[in-house]
């Protein structure tokens, strides 16, 4: 007889569906649950997590699957389960409570609320029994339920204290009157002060990629020409590419490393990490022309296309860290298994044994392993050292490694895969679209452009209605009104696509979404709320200003406003971009780790964008320029027919193709343009002069 399903069985979120057969009487976040809490005067237990979260799975297994624990929850609480990726507004609100009360946060997030949604107790993971200095969850449930019944005054005092603290935490912009390029000096120096010059990355363990901060340091290097900023970024990219955080068999990157050397990852894979890292490696290739960075970028994008792309052309959210109940099982190897696989294709035994020796030496594979008796692949020596040790050429060694990787890839494909969260999140898909466009620009691989075009087509067909967007799409259902980061990231994705495929519809849609965003999200003070004025109201209306795992809605909005201003010359757009930047510039200078993308937008604004129009009937007329690192440029490649259709757009005003020339280009800055240029070298020269 199967387990009885609870209300979560009717949801589409993979995270909520994971809990659909719990004996807990779960509700999704809904009016029915909130009304019942009010009518019965019961406290709410709110549990927030996401499908790839390891400790969420642990708490589920220890507590939510346990009949005894569930009976306590069902008797005393209205129990609500939330997928943080579906409802980031709820998560952000109560994460701030957790930070306020405990000094830390994370997932699973466990919050105890009054029926009017005000918190009186908060934590993250709780074990079933007292452990790790944490109270056992059943004991905590009983204590708080009794306290709620017998000492409401104490509960109310705790609520009042937390709400007062929340109001003090409310983001207060430090508005500046003027801004110049010196604003970028302090954050760049701060970042380098925290740089690990041996292992790459920032600080010690755990170590996150911090892609947006590294992207900023590449821009700072372009501005100042100080080599240590570039060298640190390239060191970090080399160390990450060599480390266990990089999936050497299937491509892509895991969420973060638990150690300082990028060796042992937390094995979940997130769409947004891989999108941001693909852009970072693409820019490293542009600035260095080192083919290795191109390879890592392509491996990452190929992973996204192979493992994260849905049948409807949207990108799925994440892959679990666990498979078959074990963290990292899908990704780790024993030395015996590796040797057997390398010898399994019928090759000469002696050569197979040597190939296995080469592969194990290169990837640090040993009898004892480096992770719970198994091996996480990582590059432990250079190709040159390997070639010298085995008396082979570099090309021979690379061919052997490629053959062996292919054998392990095919073998791994037969393993039980980590679960995939296949919901489509608009903001994350926008980052993936931008990454695909970037990959197409630097590699010329049409697959990436096709993926971007198809993803935009899916979003417009399934997640858009007029100028309104939905955040989530899954199983044929689009739901939850889009948030600020959804709108602003998607507008930028449309503009990225427009630059390489300049059809007016992409620019028109970007303008329509921007107008909606300004109407419904703008705060008359100087920036944008995270939720629209039509959204469900929580205990606070947050702005969520920080660039953390993903770019913030405000930084992406400022970027989109700057770009749209240059296309449309609409003064409101640049005025509002300036308003946002003036509100955040000092925060970004003082705390660059929380404002990495805002710093990149500040760079673009302060450098004053250079408008580059390349007119050519050749599809790849701008190809050589696309390979250049020119972060201060808005570069559109267009053919003569498309130019005629876009003549009403101010960006293209007065720009004509010169007869008899294969290429005509214009470089413009601050409303002055070059004479028509007819070679890529001339264009590069003018850009350098303007930069």
Brief digest:
By secondary structure, the chain is α+β, with helices and mostly antiparallel strands. It is built from 26 helices and 19 strands. Helices cover 50% and strands 11% of the residues.
Describe the structure.
With 691 residues, this protein is α+β, with helices and mostly antiparallel strands. The chain has four domains: 7-169, Glutaredoxin (3-Layer(aba) Sandwich); 181-325 and 419-607, Glycosyltransferase (Alpha/alpha barrel); 331-412, no CATH class; 610-690. Helix content is 50%, strand content 11%. Strands 8, 9, 12, 13, 14 and 15 form a six-stranded antiparallel beta sheet that branches. A five-stranded mixed beta sheet has the order 1-3-2-4-5, sandwiched between helices. A four-stranded mixed beta sheet has the order 17-16-18-19. Strand 6 (256-257) and strand 7 form a beta hairpin. Helix 13 packs across helix 14 and helix 20 (504-521) crosses helix 21. The termini are far apart.
